[in-house]
């Protein structure tokens, strides 16, 4: 790619693959010719820069459902895949989302799930008729509200795979019949709960990769630092060594870093550890105060 980015959307026909948007946010679209190796070339620009958009395509036209910039956007762009150039305004979404999943038949584009206004996930599906510009129409509801989902389709059926809720990856696969509106139905389960990406032929779909959110049930033992055994012996001595105060301060710093990792999403922990973390912070703070008085 000419642009180094992530959080972009992709769409294709049998000849060309196109990327759109990305972190920044970006309005850049690039393309490759699938049959030949080589770097991406500039395709054009979106009407509005956005990150975490979702896209899908018919054999002739790509549809881009905008993500956020930084707030959620509701605009829809389209591009004719065979000819480079800037995207054009298609219409608006009835529900603004990002990290949604989109799939298409030759005539209809459906987008569903995603992160929406208010900080939660949505179970709404909406669709457009690809050949005619206009706003989305309600298609139906998914089995549950999710975000960071994957989707694939052939000419008759759209399949929506995996995703996550606020803290856990999900293994549910759902499907819709593209020609008729209605709620999604259960298709089956992934072998592993994860957020994944999807590709499909007319007969087979493949879900691959993705984050598992295994940390959501993580009992990380950073708080049980193994060198604490040395501290146990130090506490039971008549004379407390001076290094123990610096060591306990290090433990406090580690727990604070652990909290920061939790809050920022670097790693997730089981909620049952929260009172242990708080108790250790209180205990370590007391020990620092107590040891200072003892050493003096």
Describe this structure in words.
It contains 3 helices and 20 strands. The protein has 296 residues and is of the alpha+beta class. The strands form 6 sheets. A 4-stranded antiparallel β-sheet has the order 1-2-3-4, with no helix packed on it. It has a 4-stranded antiparallel β-sheet with strand order 5-6-7-8, with no helix packed on it. Strands 10-11-13-14 form a 4-stranded antiparallel β-sheet, with no helix packed on it. Strand 5 and strand 6 form a beta hairpin. Helix 2 (243-264) packs antiparallel against helix 3. The mean pLDDT is 87.
Which strand order does the major sheet show?
1-2-3-4
What global shape is seen? elongated
- Compressed to H and E, one letter per element, the order equals EEEEEEEEEEEEEEEEEEEEHHH
Low-confidence stretches: none
The overall strand count is 20
Task: Name the helicity range.
Answer: 10-25%
Tally of alpha and pi helices: 3
Tell me, rounded to a whole number, the average pLDDT.
87
Strand content of the residues, in percent?
35-45%
- Alpha-carbon distance between the two ends: 63 Å
The assigned structural class equals alpha+beta
Largest sheet: 4 strands, antiparallel
What Rg is obtained from the alpha carbons, in whole angstroms? 25 Å
């Amino acid at each position: 790619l000419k642009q180094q980015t992530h959080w972009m959307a992709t769409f294709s026909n049998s000849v060309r693959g196109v990327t759109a948007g990305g972190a920044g946010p970006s309005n850049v679209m690039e393309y490759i010719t699938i049959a030949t190796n080589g770097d991406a070339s500039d395709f054009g620009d979106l009407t509005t820069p956005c990150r975490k958009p979702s896209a899908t395509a018919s054999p002739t036209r790509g549809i881009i459902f905008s993500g956020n910039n930084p707030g959620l956007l509701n605009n829809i762009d389209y591009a004719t895949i065979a000819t480079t150039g800037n995207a054009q305004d298609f219409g608006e979404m009835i529900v603004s989302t990002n990290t949604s999943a989109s799939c298409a038949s030759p005539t209809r584009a459906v987008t569903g799930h995603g992160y929406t206004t208010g900080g939660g996930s949505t179970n709404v599906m909406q669709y457009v008729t690809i050949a005619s510009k206009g706003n989305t129409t309600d298609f139906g509801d998914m089995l549950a509200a999710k975000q960071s989902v994957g989707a694939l389709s052939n000419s008759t059926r759209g399949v929506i795979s995996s995703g996550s809720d606020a803290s856990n990856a999900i293994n549910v696969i759902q499907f819709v019949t593209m020609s008729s509106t209605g709620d999604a139905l259960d298709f089956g389960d992934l072998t592993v709960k994860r957020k994944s990406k999807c590709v499909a032929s007319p007969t087979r779909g493949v879900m691959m990769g993705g984050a598992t959110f295994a940390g959501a049930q993580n009992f990380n033992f950073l708080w049980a630092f193994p060198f604490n055994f040395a501290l146990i012996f130090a506490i039971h001595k008549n004379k407390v060594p001076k290094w123990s105060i610096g060591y306990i301060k290090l433990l406090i710093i580690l727990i604070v870093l652990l909290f920061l990792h939790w809050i920022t999403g670097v790693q997730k922990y089981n909620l049952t550890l929260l009172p242990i973390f708080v108790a250790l912070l209180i205990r370590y703070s007391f020990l620092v105060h107590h040891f200072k008085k003892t050493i003096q």
